Amino acid sequence: GRIIFIAHDGEQHAADAQPGESLMQCAVNNLVPGIFGDCGGCATCGTCHAYIDDRWRAAAGEVNEDELLILDGSEHARPNSRLTCQVTFTEELDGVIVRLPPVQR
Ligand code: FES
């Protein structure tokens, strides 16, 4: 599958994604700038924050409680914010557009 990451300045990075991996892992594996994943995917660092395009929000699932704790503390949080380490890639997410916030915390 494929994920399109769009940086805050508009630069696009297309990445190959495998079902079962997280969007964060895909970004890190593909050296996408702006997604760091410092905690390794534990939903504690918040450096994998991004916005899921509305067309794929339902397929990305619900924000979990660990994410909420982090996102509540981010001035850049929006209704479509996710911690990308908490979103598992599935075929339903093929082609998903993921936009990056201006900065990671
Ligand atoms: Fe740390 Fe997602 S990688 S919160």
From TrEMBL:
Tell me where in this chain the 2Fe-2S ferredoxin-type domain is found. Answer: 1-104
Q: Where are the transmembrane segments?
A: none
The record ties this protein, via Pfam families, to: Fer2
**Could you tell me the superkingdom of the organism this chain comes from?**
Bacteria
Task: Spell out the family assignment given in the record's similarity comment.
Answer: Belongs to the adrenodoxin/putidaredoxin family.
Spell out the PANTHER family in the cross-references. Answer: FERREDOXIN-2, MITOCHONDRIAL, FERREDOXIN/ADRENODOXIN
Which molecular function terms from Gene Ontology are attached? Answer: 2 iron, 2 sulfur cluster binding; electron transfer activity; metal ion binding
PROSITE patterns from the xrefs? 2FE2S_FER_2
**Which BP terms does GO give this entry?**
P450-containing electron transport chain
The name of this protein is 2Fe-2S ferredoxin
Which UniProt keywords are given for this protein, alphabetically ordered?
Answer: 2Fe-2S, Iron, Iron-sulfur, Metal-binding
Q: What is the lineage of its organism?
A: Bacteria, Pseudomonadati, Pseudomonadota, Gammaproteobacteria, Nevskiales
Classification via CDD domains: fer2 (cd00207)
Q: Does the keyword Iron-sulfur apply?
A: yes
- Please list the cofactors this protein needs: [2Fe-2S] cluster
* InterPro entries recorded: 2Fe-2S_ferredoxin-like_sf, 2Fe-2S_ferredoxin-type, Adrenodoxin-like, Beta-grasp_dom_sf
